[in-house]
Design brief:
The protein is mainly alpha-helical. It has a single domain, classed as 2-enoyl-CoA Hydratase, Chain A, domain 1 (Alpha-Beta Complex). The chain has eight helices and five strands. The protein starts with a strand and ends in a 6-residue tail after the last helix. The model has no long low-confidence stretch (mean pLDDT about 90).
Length: about 150
């Protein structure tokens, strides 16, 4: 159901994303006193939508996320494996050498370097941990399961 934090990282690093209709996407890190996920989420959603989710900590449904084009398909949960496998089988019918070259070419023309951007973004988590606000948000979440109010 939830595609948060590390789940965003997995989806953002994937070549093709198929989501179940119960999936919910979000980046609640700012509510947990950390940062992260933006570099990966920008591969799925437009910049302003990423900023909206990042700054508010809100979530969006798989159907909403699919409207922006980063999700190939939204299917019933029990159809997820079969749908993903059908896509994989279609790709497997192609020349492995050409698919490998195609992936390298697409990675080369991508607008930004995901790994570099993610590492840069994570440096801000280290900075956030130096602020008392970060500790307060982490403590609030661990203690009450709620976000800290400022």
């Amino acid at each position: 159901g939830f595609v948060l934090g590390g789940g965003i990282g997995i989806c953002g690093a994937a070549d093709i994303v198929v989501a179940s209709e119960c999936a919910r996407f979000g980046v609640p890190e700012v509510d947990r006193g950390a940062l992260g996920g933006g570099a990966h989420l920008q591969r799925l959603l437009p910049l302003q939508k990423v900023r909206y989710l990042y700054f508010t900590g809100l979530e969006m449904t798989a159907q909403e996320a699919a409207r922006y084009g980063g999700i190939e398909a939204v299917v019933k949960r029990d159809q997820l494996h079969d749908h993903a496998r059908a896509i994989a089988e279609k790709i497997a019918e192609k020349s492995p050498a050409l698919i490998s070259l195609a992936k390298e070419a697409l990675n080369g023309v991508e607008a930004s370097n995901l790994e570099r951007n993610y590492r840069w973004e994570q440096g801000f988590t280290a900075q956030a941990y130096l602020h008392s606000d970060s500790q307060m948000t982490r403590d609030a979440f661990v203690t009450t399961g709620e976000n800290a109010n400022f």
